[in-house]
Amino acid sequence: MTPHAITTLAELEALYAQPAAPSLSKQVAYLHPHYQAFIEAAPFCLLSTVGQDWAECSPRGDAPGFVQVLDPRTLLLPDRRGNNRIDSLRNIVADPRVGLLFVIPGINETIRVNGTAQISVDPALIARCVVDGKAPTTVLVITVQAVFFQCARALIRSRLWAAQSQVARQSLPSNGEILATLSGNAIDGAAYDRDLPERQRTTLY
Predict the structure, then answer these.
(1) Residue 17 carries which DSSP code?
(2) Does residue 82 surpass a pLDDT of 80?
(3) Measured between alpha carbons, how far is 139 from 78 in angstroms, rounded to an integer?
(4) Topology of 21-158 in CATH?
(5) What residues contact residue 186 under an 8 Å CB cut-off, 6+ apart?
(6) Distance of CA 118 to CAs 75, 101, 135, 138, Å?
(7) Which of 58, 136, 192, 201 could form a disulfide with 176 if both were Cys (CB 3.0 to 4.6 A apart)?
(8) Strand partners, 128
(9) The Pyridoxamine 5'-phosphate oxidase N-terminal domain covers which part of the protein (predicted)?
(10) 90-108 pLDDT tens trace
(11) pLDDT for 19-42, tens place per residue?
(12) Looking at the chain, which residues constitute the CATH 2.30.110.10 domain(s)?
């Protein structure tokens, strides 16, 4: 056991004050029109899942509105083309619980959605998510159980949207450098980096 670890709810709750009324009243069990407006404006969200071995958090992004509101208690999230690891989907097969965090550029508040997901190949739902003639392999049908906004403190502290916060990509290891190192140079890192922009462009959907 790690020294000073908190292991019970009683220990945890003793450290924090009770949440204020706004922190509780902002949560609803459906997609209120105010929250729908944020979701429909978001080009990016994080999807959290829980599997048999560990929890997972994965980015999802597309044009604003790519996560569709089917009704006040249901969201539709296409699984766009990726690396085929399907970590999140494997987790959902094992445990349907999911969390979503919606992020809008320039907006410091985020929207949190908790619920359960099913993986669907329903042709009608797939057809709703076609982009540039390309259909996702599957879609997630998410049943909403809780929705609320997260206050702006984290994004204000991080200065996420400030121009001076932007980090030059070349200041960090490239994808190719990482792959070459971790594979013992079995993967040609320079070739991977050279081909990546075109591969991403042609396989976006």
Answers:
(1) P
(2) yes
(3) 4
(4) Pnp Oxidase; Chain A (2.30.110)
(5) none
(6) 11, 18, 18, 10
(7) 192
(8) none
(9) 32-151
(10) 999 999 999 999 999 999 9
(11) 999 999 999 999 999 999 999 999
(12) 21-158
